Amino acid sequence: MGGWAVASEDLVFFFGYLFLSDLLSVEIQTPGSTGEFTACFPGEIIKIEKRYYRHLCDFFVEMYKMWHMSDEQIRRRCKFTNPEVIRRYFDQGKSVIGVLGHYGNWEWMSSYSLWMPREFDFFTLYKPLHNAVADKMMIRLRSRFGAKPVPKNDILRRIVENKRNGRLFLAGFIGDQTPNRANLNFWMEFLTPVHETSDQYNPVHT
Description:
Layout: H1 3-24, H2 42-66, H3 71-77, H4 84-91, E1 96-100, E2 121-126, H5 132-142, E3 148-151, H6 155-165, E4 169-174, H7 194-201
Parallel strand pairs: 1-4, 2-3, 2-4
């Protein structure tokens, strides 16, 4: 980040920590309670809280900066040290699905398209927002550097389309998020229901 951006992050953190900590009411348990921070002393809890808001404020400043960065600037500030690993699979005629942890500013991850050949697609999965204006804005932001945002429920169709057209792709999945209630459980029919086969295997003789 440039000097102005660092100063902006410090300023945002100063006001963010003063006001957001009360507004968002992040609950951190004190020693003696039965929470995740039971083993922490009060001073440690304050440090954790400040690091959390520092990270949150950095995220907002970096998102704003992303609207104004050129390809060269984003490549300089968000570096991928081993793009040859994925390129190796492309050279073999194989597409790649990347399962990623959810930490840091993943909006900048969309700039990975600048590190791969343009003839290949880079799909970034996302969950559409309820607000249509905000959703459109985020799609524009995530596609600025050539990535192709795909709603999570449409990714299978896009993969099949690329497969049929012989076009290689990299699809990035965030693998550590909690599923919603509709997708919390997975059910499938493993064996034919007993009531449909009971007569076949246990015939009744009269």
